[in-house]
């Protein structure tokens, strides 16, 4: 792709140099105005170190009445778009600092990207993780080539220890923030989407507190075509970006969840640069429910054979929830930015999503404890073409008359209509059947 460089007054107006607080000393020296030239330079510099991920037409398009293209950033080596910003950041460090090394804390996509790319660049890298971090994450970080140190029981303990080690040994302490270098690396996603999907009407990005991907990519897209709508999506439970935009500054006193399901979606709003850029260039920021995110994860698994986490699914969740009706009939790209769903959450998320999608239901009824009664129930279920996932019988703790059995069935159905048909068939034969609502 040929990139024509020029200065944009819009981008210059959007950002001003913000003095960094003492708690964020890592990247302040790299903070400056973000320009389109910075993003195109980042694209050239990192082209051999990260994947140029596909942006493919999705089978979900017909279901939601628009042409949907999925930018599959979860295909990066560490499963996250954060690699783009991290690689450009690391290659931009002075050589003496590269020799001394870098240090990060926390169990996050950013830390994993630093661990991998610093090792690939032969930069000494240390990762401080709390003792509550999952063993799988610790193992993966070590396999990337980082020196992993377990310290403290909380994320705050790990961060304090990392800062202390950095000060004592000359390491550069890195944490995710909105320096121009990092934003420029993330903004390369916007360049690729523009190149891969002609005649785009809109691009949807995950937002939340860490809105660097949204801000950097918006700068690239708006430079290339000001008519493309750029939309951010965050969690309804943690509308950090919307509230920060309304206040006009980052709100760092937000109560955020530390549940691994949400990841960066629920993080604090970390910088004024990306916040101002978002306010200037992004048309809309919408919020979605947890239920919408789960169903979005289910849709991606079924239609795209992709397992993503909440951050990866939240962009599509806005379409699932019907939050963007103005995009009907349009050509829309959705950035699927992360696929690092922890294994212990995978089964819970899919089971819950199937229930929310009215494809798993449960009922209970009381039968006489006579031969053949259970068989008659199973015949009805078979006739309705419903799949029995689980069936339990309770004889001892039954409050009804003697010689009866309480039967509880968990069923899988095709969709909401099929569930209603099954319910009507059961109530016709067993009027006292109790249907357990989700």
UniProtKB/TrEMBL annotation:
The protein here is known as L-serine deaminase
Classify the source by domain of life.
Eukaryota
Q: Which UniProt keywords apply?
A: Lyase, Pyridoxal phosphate
Keyword Lyase assigned: yes
Gene3D superfamilies on file: 3.40.50.1100
- Which stretches make up the ACT domain? 362-438
This protein's cofactor list reads:
pyridoxal 5'-phosphate
**Record keyword Nucleotide-binding present:** no
Among the GO molecular function terms of this UniProt record, one is: threonine deaminase activity
Native organism: Ciconia maguari
Pfam families referenced in this protein's UniProt entry, alphabetically: PALP
What processes in GO biological process is this protein linked to? isoleucine biosynthetic process; L-serine catabolic process; L-threonine catabolic process
